[in-house]
């Protein structure tokens, strides 16, 4: 099964900049509203919103520098998280252990809050998938943003593995029948 495939996903910078610009406008309006209502907290309010905006900018900068590499090598799905020049292996799953890969429909908020997500999309506009797999006898899952090509490659490898297993079982069954005859 000498299959190899690799793709990289990353967050686009323009939507992140638009998000930060919109957030800055909201913070300015909130700050002005609070300063007009309560005059005594003007300095505290301005420092608070400035710190909040700086934190949001830092988080968006980090997220824009984060990429995920999805690779299929032989019969394994490998996911790397790449931040700048640092590459970290986050998942190494045998494709035969994958139980299900399903597209997430409807509200994607639960996916955004999940700890096991290997996605980059800002608002969940891209197609997200949930992958369930066996690991040490337990079912684990994670969320990711593969292309249709990656999904089809995974499904092809899973089908080949199932056909191979069925053929092996049938051959073993035939050998047992011959031995008992």
Report what the structure shows:
This protein has 181 residues and is of the alpha+beta class. The chain has a domain at 94-176. It is 48% helix and 30% strand. It has four helices and eight strands; from the N terminus they run βααββββαβββα. The chain has helices at residues 13-37, 42-64, 109-113, 148-180, and strands spanning 4-10, 66-73, 76-83, 86-94, 98-103, 117-118, 129-135, 138-144. Strands 1-2-3-4 form a four-stranded antiparallel beta sheet. Strands 5-7-8-6 form a four-stranded mixed beta sheet, with no helix packed on it. Helix 1 (13-37) packs antiparallel against helix 2 (42-64). The radius of gyration is 24 Å and the shape is elongated. The model has no long low-confidence stretch (mean pLDDT 81).
Largest sheet: 4 strands, antiparallel
The CA-CA distance between the termini, in Å, is 35 Å
* pLDDT averaged residue by residue: 81
Count of DSSP H/I helices = 4
Please tell me what the overall shape is: elongated
Number of strands: 8
- Please state how the strands of the largest beta sheet are arranged side by side: 1-2-3-4
Provide the helix percentage. 40-55%
Q: Tell me the Rg in angstroms.
A: 24 Å
What is the chain-wise order of helices and strands?
EHHEEEEHEEEH
Structural class: alpha+beta
Which runs of at least 5 residues are low in confidence (pLDDT < 50)?
A: none
Tell me the fraction of residues in β-strands, as a range. 25-35%
Keywords: Membrane, Transmembrane, Transmembrane helix
């Amino acid at each position: 099964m000498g299959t190899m495939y690799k793709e990289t996903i990353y967050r686009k910078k323009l939507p992140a900049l638009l998000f930060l610009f919109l957030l800055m406008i909201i913070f300015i309006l909130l700050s002005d509203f609070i300063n007009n209502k309560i005059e005594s907290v003007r300095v505290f309010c301005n420092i608070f919103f400035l710190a909040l905006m700086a934190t949001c900018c830092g988080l968006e900068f980090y997220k824009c520098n984060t990429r995920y590499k999805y690779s299929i090598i032989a019969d394994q799905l490998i996911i790397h998280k790449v931040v700048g020049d640092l590459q970290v292996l986050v998942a190494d799953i045998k494709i035969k252990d994958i139980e299900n890969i399903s597209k997430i429909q409807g509200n994607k908020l639960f996916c955004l809050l999940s700890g096991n997500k290997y996605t980059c999309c800002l608002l969940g506009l891209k197609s997200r998938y949930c992958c369930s797999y066996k690991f040490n006898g337990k079912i684990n899952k994670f969320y990711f943003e593969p292309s249709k090509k990656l999904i089809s490659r995974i499904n092809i490898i899973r089908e080949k593995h199932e056909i191979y297993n069925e053929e092996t079982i049938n051959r073993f069954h035939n050998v047992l029948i011959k031995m008992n005859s």
